[in-house]
Specification:
Helix content: 10-25%
Protein name: Chitobiase/beta-hexosaminidase C-terminal domain-containing protein
CATH superfamily of the largest domain: Zn peptidases
Largest sheet: 8 strands, mixed
Number of helices: 13
CATH architecture of the largest domain: 3-Layer(aba) Sandwich
Structural class: alpha+beta
Keywords: Coiled coil, Hydrolase, Metalloprotease, Protease, Zinc
InterPro entries: GH29D-like_dom, Peptidase_M14
GO cellular component, one term: extracellular space
Shape: globular
Distance between the termini: 41 Å
Number of domains: 4
Radius of gyration: 31 Å
Family: Belongs to the peptidase M14 family.
Amino acid sequence: MPKGKHVKHVKWLLLTSAVGLAIGSTYVNSNENSSVSADLEDRPVEIEDEPSQIVQLEVPSEEALDQLHELGIDLTHRAHMHDGEIEVDAVVTDSEIEQLKQYDITVKDVLIDEEIWQARVNEREEIIEQQNQIENAEENLQFLRANHFTNQSETFLYLEVKSSAGESPSTTLTADWEGNEDPVTLSRKSDYGEYLYHYLFIPMDDVPGEVTVTSNLGNDVTAKVTEWLGDDKPDNPKKHYATEFVDHYMDPYELNERMEQLAEEFPDLVEIIEMPHETNGYRRHAQATLGTMANSAVVVTSNAWGHEGGNDLSVELVAQENSSDLQVDINGDDITVQLETDENGEVVSTAQDVMAALNEEAGDLVSATPYRNYSGTGIVEPTSAELTDGLNAPEHISREPQTVKALRIGKKRDGSKPGVLGYAQEHAREWVTPLVTIEAAERLLRNYAHDGKTKQLVNNLDIFLVPSVNPDGATYSFYDYNWQRKNMTNHCPEELSDFGVRHNWGVDLNRNHSVGSIHDGYVGASTNCTSGTYAGPEEHSEPESQNLVWLADEFENIEFAMNIHSYGGYFMWSPGAYDQNREPLPRPTAGEEAFYWAASNHILSNIKEHRGTVILPSRTGPIPDVLYSAGGNSADYLWYEKGIYAWNFEVGADLWNEEQQRWQPVGFQPPYEEGHEEAMEFASGLIGLFEVAYQHSKDNKPPKSNVTPGEGEYDGPVELEFETSEPATIYYTLDGSRPTFESEQLQLGGTREPAETLTIDETTTVNWFAVDPAGNIEKNYNPLGNGQNYNSITLQIQE
């Protein structure tokens, strides 16, 4: 398919979407984020946002499901029909649950709460601590076996080596011997969680005299190879393929470390691409809300970032003993506001008075604003607070703007090979997704030396892997607020920028793109800055989405892409958005859709091989057909603007509960044992995409096509049906003219239907040709020239 073949859909008039849910039921703001009347009944200040939880909602009807979207409820990617009821997973607070009851939407089950999330965090920290202990201890390498034998017609080499650091899957061992071109990675063998050893079992033409095994921790051990006469050996010796290279959820800092390690270890196969648009950083200004009642509260925000001094500031409101004017005293980082009192010693300063004084006298250090949309006419109360940015990541995690990095893997990385892009964690809370890219990268690199199929892929493709598109948000999810979906950039106005709203700031990066955007009238996103699907103030406003655009622009050889999300077990492609009349973006042609299905079959079969997980047919297909509209998503941008075949993984397929006879969701952050399995199976799926890309690049055989019925005379109208030898787009004319790339294309018959048929009700000459996804044209016909070697039939219809 030619680059740029797909054009951006014609912009629709901006449609106003529904009112957003109140944050903690404190206010209601429109999508334009304008404040409502300040004359509200005074209420308590909310210093902390309401706790959230993932629940399974029972939705009585499609209309009620639409209401969820209109209210801006933070839905996960999972929707399911069960016993006639619609089940939808959502991240909600208790007040939101109460609000949903008026639409007869009720909670069926609580899936994950903060206690469970904390257990996941503790699990991760325990694994990291165990790894550190293992890796910091002096490693001991021990050869258990170094044998060769001939079994019937083939000679084999078999090694067993045990590392004292082998409990950690990040410990890798490679074998080398005289005459070997590249070190070969050993596979790690464990049983019921117990590490046994690493092994290698491969066919050999020439048996080496001795073998040296080296650990990535810097140690090595050498053994002589002796003959083995027994028959106790592992299965499938010709399929030595190392896997299992991730062992815990990895934050963005760890991901970058692993990428750097791989680039250093495999300089001939890997380079790191640094993308030009830095994130806004894992950083915030320090804040405090002084006061307990909304209309008398003052929000104080540091001018400096929290880590650059804002966290050192404190503010105290003190009632003066003697009646005098309000004044502000500054002593280093300590700000004291002497409140005005009357003759009885009662404070008479309002929040407005305090704000004005702070902004005038301490404006170099802080700014002071009203609490949310209140006027600040209430009398303040003496109090004090230390400002904080609320960020809890360890000190080694940078607070500065981050450079988003991609691993570029390939033997020849000059743009001459077909490019494939895999990118993950647009949504911060999806912890499994980066592991898919890291595991796939490790498999490519560590199997390259000895696995023919892997070498084929690396030698003939240009592979780009972005483990974390959204490092700021991901860090926030790991250390501060696990449900964080968006990045950390606050585009909210003043009245929505106090500390209690901090978990609702940010832009949904998978709604920030320029195709099918809410800014163009499509649905599935929000212009409410506190919504989980906030699309940003404008298309491509965020550096993270700009990086993806840059990557597609900079490397024009990219022909395939996979956007990796969780959870729900979906496999989807464009169109990804529709308007309020449910009119989607232009669907792929019948031939393009056939290619999507054929390639998907291969990719999903790879996923199934790991542990039998089947992505359901009902969850496979164009996004609106299997889930819901996702206006402004990145895969649509890649497909329509860049002509890239772009898919979306939703890792974490439901697990079948045999006892309850129902499917059960796994969540964004399942226990690592489950997360590991998801990473393994979807890494296999990503390798499957690379295989699709490789086969596509080798396709130089033109397609063939025919029609039914054929040329002849007919008594009445006929339905003309096209058939092709492979997925291919049909270009045709019905007026006898020569078909070109500007001619009509055969489309789908309808949603999830095969290709349309053409109704011929009068004598017609049909001219056509077929083009497969690799660009091969039937009969080598040149639509841009003057050739006549296209297909042609005449159907004579008797009237």
